[in-house]
Each structure stands twice: as structure tokens, then as C-alpha cells.
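pasting for the record
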Amino acid sequence: MSPVAIVTDSASDLTPELAAATGIRVVPLEVTFGDEHFRAGVDLSTAAFWERMVAPDAPFPTTAAASPGEFQSVFEACFAGGAEAVVCVDVAGSLSATVKSATIARDLLPAREIHVVDSTSASMGEGVLALIGAEMAARGLGAREIADALTERAADLNVFVALDTLEYLRKGGRISGTQATIGGLLSVKPIITIKDGTVDTADRVRTRSKARERVIELLSERPVERLAILYTTSTPDEVAAFRDEVVAGLPGGVDNACVTVQPVGPSVGPHLGPGCLGGVVLYRR
């Protein structure tokens, strides 16, 4: 085991299999459907979440940050397992109180070396940084060096996702009702970007096929070091074809080992809704 443990939260959209394979511990956010409360990825899988999400008359799900106590418990488990330090990579502090919870938990363990990194991103934007951190830890780098490097590389991240509607972002409080209404009136397919902790509209196009083409263009604007394809309810064939088109269009190409395909899970899915397709890029330096 590396002396540096890497921790993230479930908004990173790391699958349980990928987290286990890389030794990353994931702190679950809370997801609520009506009166039912779940821990994302623990007692509500991604598949089960989307079944509920698209069910007729299903209540709109809400999310809540993990508590400081949950982070403290995971930090303590890392040290009990032999870690000498922890680097915790979290969803953008501008989008969630999760960074604050992790920071409080860090301060509750003043005798331990714990670094909290604001990814300034979400979904696999956050996940990519956690994976890089795990790779650095496996190579024997120290916690401070890893945390500083991840903070620096956060500036190289961008997320582009084509949505069916802005309504889910509106319900989740990530955009204004006016923005969502304008999008609906124009009958457009919005493309959002998450950059430097801000969710913004990158473009608006008329059809789903045009949105898909435009996302590929946006993901391919600059040479990339890593790529993560994101989707919500697309079919495996659709996702595979989209991945291949993105990879084929990247200037300078990309190592296949640095390409992942990840479903958007319960922590981020409520804000995007079904029918989304897009990706995360870490630009080359």
C-alpha cells in the first residue's frame, strides 16, 4: 500500500470497480427521492438510480454533501490501514459544500497530514484528478507534492456535455429559471461546460444529432492528455460510437490507456437528467 491514500467523493463518478482497482476511497454524497434517502454508490447504484430517475411520476431527486463525520471516518480508516497521509480530491466548492465538509474533517484530525484539493470540476473532471493522484501515490510521491500538482492541473480540465433540457439544472439550482425557460422556448439542445468551478452554456443547437457533433468539436479543440466519455441513458452502441469519433478527432491523438468511459452516477445525474452525452478533457501542457 502507498503511504499516501487518495480519497474523493461520489460526485467524481468513479465506478466502484475503478475506485477499487486504483485504491481510491470514495465518500458518498446523499441522494433523496421523496422520503427515501440513499448514499450514492453504497445503497444506490448508478443503474438503480437511473431506473428511479426515468420512472413515471418519480419524485425529483435531490443531492446533499457528505458530512464532515463521513469524511473523518474515511480519513481515519485510511490511517488505520497504514497510510501516512491523505490527499482528498473533491467536487468544486462553488457547486457543493463537500469541500467544506472535507476541510472540517481535516481540521478535526490536526495531528494527521491531510490535504484537501478543490477539483474546480465535477463528475470525471474530479475523477481524472483523483486517478492522477493515485498514480502519483503509487510512484512514491509525497502528499504535499501530489496535492500541489493536482491543484495546478485542475486548470487544465474542461467538461462538455450535451443535455436534452436545462430543466434538471434549474431544478437542482445550478442555473436560473430564466435561463432554463429561454432554452425551452427556443427548443434547443444546450451544451454546458464546467470550467474553473462554473457551470455555463457553451452552445445551443437545434437537434440532438447537431448537439452530438458540436460536443465532439468542443472536445477536440485542443490536444488532450486524458479523455473521459460521460453518458447518462445512452445505449452502449451509442456511447462506443461517440467515443470512437471523439478519439479519432483529437489533434495529436491520445493514448488509449488514458481514455475511460464512465456513466454519470447518482450524485451528478439529478442535475443533468437522462439523454446526456459528453466528456471531460485534461488538456496537454
